[in-house]
Amino acid sequence: MSFYDAVVPAYLQMLNSLTGLLTKAEAHCEARKIQPEVLLGARLYPDMLPLSKQIQLVSDFAAKGCARVTHSEVPSTPDTEKTFGELKQRLANTIAYVKTYKPEQFEGADAKQVTFPAGPDRSITVTGQQLISSFSFPNFYFHAATAHGILRHNGVEIGKRDFLGVS
Description:
About 65% of the residues lie in helices and about 5% in strands. The chain is mainly alpha-helical. The chain has a two-stranded antiparallel sheet with strand order 1-2.
């Protein structure tokens, strides 16, 4: 399996499944007369980030993961989304961006050194494989699972198949 095949389809699967989750969440709000801002601001615990930020971070880890391992320009996306529609558009933009990458851009990227910021005054250098497997994927899936958990905790009728995007 190529490095591209191990990375890009995984990002795309989850980005697409989150789009479906947001569609169900939006319908949940409409059916139950819940203000969308309430669900978009929901958290699993007070010190955790809200649903909207979870989606923004998933988007960031996918786009930046691809950019960093291919030594492409890292995209900057301001976190301005305040509605389900805006968050779904952000996911659509990220899907389109990730789809621009070609397998040849990933050739040898697993072994190349990648330096990325790890806080305001620190950076880390690892191989592309280490970046994806030890940093990007864990964060990407953490925020995706947290978004799913927030929605499920708030009564949105979703399950594992929805998370996997196979419903």
